[in-house]
């Protein structure tokens, strides 16, 4: 928490207009039009108001407003803003120290900017993250720089600013008697102020809540979806405009039957082709086998015929030997072919095993010839068998070859053209069916899109559903109401006073009667009691608060200058004298760890002047008495 130390106006060649405040209670009292309310407007302006909402002639020549704070440890923070508008400068020093540096450097030119000056935006715009007044004063108050509060019913959050906090800190002379809520000031969106109040009561902000899409976002998304559906429907409707759904269904059914028949025919053709190919393979294998057998038999016949010729040659040789043995004795003398001895009629002997007898040679030749003739007979029988086998395989080859020709003719001349014809017809029918099914699918898709568009139209026409959010903490509200009751009792309200918080109005009800139902005087007192009670509650519970409040005219509902005829105040707008006295007595007991500044025409009792840190503005008529005329000193 923090407190206000000083408010000052400076201008070239002018005496500074300043006022200082102490911890605890502070009272600025005196005549009307002396600058009391102007002090609150200066605080409001330096803390980021768009413009200074009150102009007084006495301050017209001043150029700069200064506001000095001090935190709980006494560390200063000074804010400077030109009265014509613009951004704010911040200094980590007192006003006196800053002005001393400026005026020491050049007494005739106060435009010097000290090096430790920090430029602050008077208000952030858009998504800016540049330092602003809030980012500087919130840490001074002991609050995080970026407190997030819900901005609307959709759950969108925004940063809490000092401007949203001010309704519980600065209460001007108009707000204090208003029949509206003491918490809610803005007329456009009150959600941030409501959530500010919840944050002050509990110390918990709305960081982390899940945002619901706004109605505008939902409508924009639905409209975009409808536009996309229209784009998708346009070509579909153009494609289907000349088609009749019932005819398409009949055509598809007929095509299904025809395609089924052609598919059966193609399957039969395929089966027949498969069987013919099987037979062709069998006959082709037979041709190959026949050729192999024929080649083998031809080889054997060639070899066997050569063997038969050899047998014939051997038989002729043996016949010759047998016949020569018969004529052996009639031969002339000659040399023995066995031992090379001359035949002389005498007997001669051959070496062992070389004896020759003609009858034996004849017999041997005859036996060998008989053997060969037996073999030759077997050979001729074998040759006859081979010839028969050769003829058999040649017949098999010829038969299989003719079968191959017939099968190839059937495949190429009959089945292949029929297959091609059926296949082409089938492809055409399938393509036609695909077109019809594509049209049917397009019709179904168009129907689905039209149904979806109708649902979107219905959703777009329905009112937005509101999210349900938890209200204010009931325990915190109860404690606050007890705190308000305590303040009212201190101000001589009835001991049985009962305060209730009306969450639908964000206002209080005292003893069953709404604050707005009372006259101006009681409305002002109850507003002031609520503002001070909030400060006390936050201090006691350690929840966020600036640490100071400024109340303008909590006791005065009709203002007039001294010397003017007193305006009549309606009875319902009057404040009981006992309440006024008790107000000052209660204010004098304010804890010095917080600060309450009261700006009012009513003067406190003399015995409380020192305890209340009273500063009196007597007005221009009393200036000659040595007392202070007002906030702005006379410079003319």
Fold and architecture overview:
The chain is an alpha/beta fold and 636 residues long. Helix content is 49%, strand content 12%. The chain has helices spanning 36-46, 95-105, 133-141, 162-165, 191-202, 215-240, 245-326, 358-461, 474-490, 520-541, 577-588, and strands spanning 2-10, 17-20, 24-30, 64-71, 76-82, 88-91, 118-120, 148-150, 157-159, 170-171, 499-502, 507-510, 513-514, 548-552, 595-600, 614-617. The strands form four sheets. A six-stranded antiparallel sheet has the order 2-1-4-5-6-7, with helices on one face. The protein is rod-shaped and about 205 Å long.
SSE layout and pairing:
Elements (H helix, E strand, L loop, with lengths): L1 E9 L6 E4 L3 E7 L5 H11 L17 E8 L4 E7 L5 E4 L3 H11 L12 E3 L12 H9 L6 E3 L6 E3 L2 H4 L4 E2 L19 H12 L12 H26 L4 H82 L31 H104 L12 H17 L8 E4 L4 E4 L2 E2 L5 H22 L6 E5 L24 H12 L6 E6 L13 E4 L19
Parallel strand pairs: 3-15, 3-16, 10-14, 14-15
Antiparallel strand pairs: 1-2, 1-4, 4-5, 5-6, 6-7, 8-9, 11-12, 12-13
Helix pairs in contact: 6-8, 7-8, 9-10
Descriptive keywords:
11 helices, 6-stranded antiparallel beta sheet, 636 residues, 5-stranded parallel beta sheet, alpha/beta
Quote the distance from N terminus to C terminus.
40 Å
What is the number of helices? Answer: 11
Mass-distribution shape: rod-shaped
Over all CA atoms, what is the radius of gyration?
64 Å
Proportion in helices:
40-55%
Strand content is: 5-15%
Task: Summarize the entry for a quick read.
The protein is α/β, with parallel strands linked by helices and 636 residues long.
């Amino acid at each position: 928490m923090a407190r206000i130390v000083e408010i000052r106006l400076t201008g070239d060649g002018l005496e500074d207009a300043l006022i200082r405040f102490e911890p605890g209670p502070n009272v600025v009292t005196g005549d009307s039009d002396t600058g009391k309310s102007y002090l609150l407007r200066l605080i409001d302006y330096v803390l980021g108001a768009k413009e200074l909402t009150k102009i007084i002639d006495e301050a017209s020549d001043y150029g700069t407003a200064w506001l000095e704070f001090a935190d709980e440890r006494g560390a200063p923070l000074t804010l400077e803003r030109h009265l014509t508008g613009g951004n704010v400068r911040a200094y980590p020093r007192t006003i006196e120290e800053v002005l001393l540096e400026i005026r020491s450097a050049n007494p005739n030119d106060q435009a010097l900017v000290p090096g430790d000056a920090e430029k602050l935006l008077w208000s952030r715009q858009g998504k800016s993250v540049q330092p602003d007044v809030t980012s500087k004063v919130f840490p001074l108050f002991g609050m995080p720089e970026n407190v997030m509060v819900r901005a609307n019913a959709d759950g969108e959050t925004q940063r809490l600013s000092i401007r949203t906090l001010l309704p519980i800190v600065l209460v001007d002379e108009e707000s204090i008697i208003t029949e509206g809520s003491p918490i809610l000031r803005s007329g456009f969106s009150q959600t941030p102020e409501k959530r500010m109040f919840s944050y002050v009561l509990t110390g918990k902000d709305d960081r982390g809540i899940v945002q619901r899409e706004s109605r505008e976002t939902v409508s924009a998304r639905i409209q975009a979806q409808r536009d996309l559906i229209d784009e998708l429907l346009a070509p579909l409707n153009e494609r289907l405009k000349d088609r009749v759904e019932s005819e398409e269904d009949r055509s598809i059914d007929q095509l299904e039957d025809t395609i089924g028949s052609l598919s059966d025919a193609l399957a039969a053709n395929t089966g027949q082709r498969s069987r013919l190919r099987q037979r062709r393979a069998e006959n082709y294998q037979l041709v190959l086998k026949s050729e192999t057998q024929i080649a083998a038999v031809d080889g054997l016949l060639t070899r066997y015929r050569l063997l038969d010729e050899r047998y014939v040659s051997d038989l002729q040789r043996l016949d010759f030997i047998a016949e020569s043995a018969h004529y052996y004795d009639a031969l002339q003398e000659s040399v023995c072919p066995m031992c090379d001895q001359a035949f002389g009629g005498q007997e001669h002997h051959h070496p062992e095993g070389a004896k020759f007898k003609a009858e034996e040679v004849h017999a041997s030749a005859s036996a060998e010839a008989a053997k060969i003739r037996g073999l030759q007979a077997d050979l001729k029988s074998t040759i006859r068998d081979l010839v028969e086998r050769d003829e058999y395989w040649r017949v098999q080859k010829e038969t299989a070859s003719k079968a191959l020709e017939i099968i190839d003719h059937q495949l190429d001349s009959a089945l292949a053209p029929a297959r091609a014809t059926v296949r082409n017809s089938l492809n055409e029918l399938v393509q036609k069916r695909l077109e019809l099914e594509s049209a049917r699918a397009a019709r179904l898709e168009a129907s689905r899109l039209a149904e979806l568009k109708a649902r979107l139209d219905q959703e777009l026409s329905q009112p937005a559903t509101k999210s349900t959010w938890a209200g204010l903490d009931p325990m915190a509200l109860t404690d606050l109401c007890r705190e308000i009751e305590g303040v009212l009792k201190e101000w001589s309200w009835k001991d049985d006073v009962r305060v209730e918080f009306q969450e639908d109005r964000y206002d209080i009800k005292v003893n069953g009667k709404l604050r707005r139902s009372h006259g101006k005087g009681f409305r002002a007192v109850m507003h002031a009691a609520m503002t001070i009670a909030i400060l006390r509650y936050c201090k006691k519970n350690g929840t966020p608060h600036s640490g100071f409040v400024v109340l303008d005219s909590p006791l005065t509902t009709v203002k007039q200058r001294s010397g003017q005829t007193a305006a009549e105040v309606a009875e319902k707008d009057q404040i009981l004298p006992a309440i006024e006295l008790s107000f000052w007595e209660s204010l004098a007991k304010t804890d010095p760890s917080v600060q309450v500044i009261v700006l009012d025409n009513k003067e406190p009792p003399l015995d409380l002047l020192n305890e209340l840190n009273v500063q009196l503005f007597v007005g221009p008529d009393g200036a000659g008495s040595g007392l202070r005329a007002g906030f702005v000193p006379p410079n003319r």
